[in-house]
Amino acid sequence: MNAMTSMQTQTTTDLAIAMRGVTKIFGSDPQAALALLQSGKSKAEVQAQTDHVVGLDNVSLDIERGQIFVVMGLSGSGKSTLIRHVNRLIEPTAGEIVVEGNSVLALSLDELRKYRRTKVAMVFQKFGLLPHRSVIDNVAYGLEVRGVGREERLEKAAKWIATVGLSGYENSRTRQLSGGQQQRVGLARALAMDTDIILMDEAFSALDPLIRSGMQDQLIELQQSLNKTILFITHDFDEALKIGNRIAVLKDGAVQQVGKPEEIVLKPANAHIEEFVREVNKARAIYVRSIMERGDVEPCEYSVPMNARCEDVLPLFAEHEWVGVLNDEGHQIGRVTAKQVIMALARHSPA
């Protein structure tokens, strides 16, 4: 069977990315270390006995189409190792990776090259730009590798340069740009590839806080119109809460919890996640839809969409006792009060 043939399984064909039991062990004899890990030994015990490093430990994730799915963890948690399995820059020791219904591990070398050129694009933490090329030639580079003609690729590159706010810099060298501008070039290069999936590995981590916040805002704004599947890696919990539709938390290569931002904030699965949650801006994580009062209520002078966050609605209580909540069609489906928001923002302890 051709490796690009869709794998007809109920659990993977409707997902953009599915990972099943993915384990990665670095060392000369990973299978021996895998046997120890599967017998119940911890990551530290495996390393002590074999001098092998467990990068990922039995990771299973479901990433739906059109989501910004954030993988969050501290340094050494395995998050960058994880994202490099999606485009097979790293081969797993065990497990399965399915992208758009196709087994990535079953691809031949030729199919893998095509997959990387047409199915996934990547934005790197350290930009990965070509210093001897202009901005527009950097943005067009992936299209050049794909074989797109010069006129067409430059036209597409110019469009995405304008989209990320760099009009006028087309002929500049990347070394002439600030860090934030260079990362916009990297983002434009990924968008120019027009892939359904974008992999972003600590893409904003090297930027100053204000520039970083602006890039986060731009990514959220772009996603509203592009509806890409974005796998985003970060060590910053606030960043994960701000941009993620769903979040997976990693520790020692193992998944600790997966859920919506408000689920992780209000119901942390263990003490490790509670440490992150303790000082987090909960108003950024909790959506109105999760705390609202549903049903027929008197129309309010002011309303917010159900996907608004608490931090969006808090200022409105200076002039309103409550505000209406609208569905995607613009119909009022309930309301939210100041008391409901305050109760939601009160400190929660793990169940």
What does this protein look like?
- Helices cover 36% and strands 22% of the residues.
- By secondary structure, the chain is α/β, with parallel strands linked by helices.
- The protein folds into 2 domains: 64-92 and 108-281, Rossmann fold, CATH 3.40.50; 286-345, CBS domain Like (Alpha-Beta Complex), CATH 3.90.1280.
- The chain has helices spanning 30-38, 43-50, 79-86, 109-118, 135-139, 141-146, 150-163, 179-192, 209-226, 237-243, 261-266, 271-277, 282-285, 310-313, 338-345, and strands at residues 17-26, 53-63, 68-72, 94-99, 102-103, 120-123, 197-201, 229-234, 246-251, 254-259, 293-294, 303-305, 322-326, 332-337.
- It has 15 helices and 14 strands.
- Mean pLDDT is 88; it is low at 1-10.
- The chain starts with 16 loop residues before the first strand and ends in a 6-residue tail after the last helix.
